[in-house]
């Protein structure tokens, strides 16, 4: 089986909505779209690039895919050309139960049976990445359909927005896969894996 990695930028209070631009995802009246931009961090950039270089397929939510489809095919040269070409070349699977514009080369739709289809994709690809796509991520987390959850946690509190683990999330115990890494801006990289265990309780005794 291949590896499915989830890559998310989030705030200290766990909000992962619209880090990239004001109009990325204003749903729910979210007022802080583009909150990540003033907090650029070299450590995060290097880690993101390493993940992009190794991936062999993308699984994206509908909103993220539509934003990328309108941007990356036109940026396969220039400073971001390596990223644009990589995203263009690998297979892209779009999680959507409705119609979606699949004109970006290498794109296809999944979603009729999300759990079964994602399991099949993990068998087909060695290094499948989900980037952003918070609604899709919440579904994958609820079904333990991931191997690595990378969170880049920024020193900002947003107070509202879509969270990685919202109220009602499936209780689970995760394993920290490697020591945390802190960047110069104060962003912290955390990498977790599933354990298959729920949440145990007990009593703290001195």
UniProtKB/TrEMBL annotation:
GO BP annotation list: riboflavin biosynthetic process
Domain Bacterial bifunctional deaminase-reductase C-terminal as annotated: residue spans: 6-172
Top-rank lineage group of the source organism: Bacteria
InterPro entries in alphabetical order: DHFR-like_dom_sf, RibDG_C
Gene Ontology molecular-function annotations: 5-amino-6-(5-phosphoribosylamino)uracil reductase activity
TM stretches of this protein: none
Protein name listed in UniProt: Dihydrofolate reductase family protein
Organism: Demequina lignilytica
Lineage start: Bacteria, Bacillati, Actinomycetota, Actinomycetes, Micrococcales
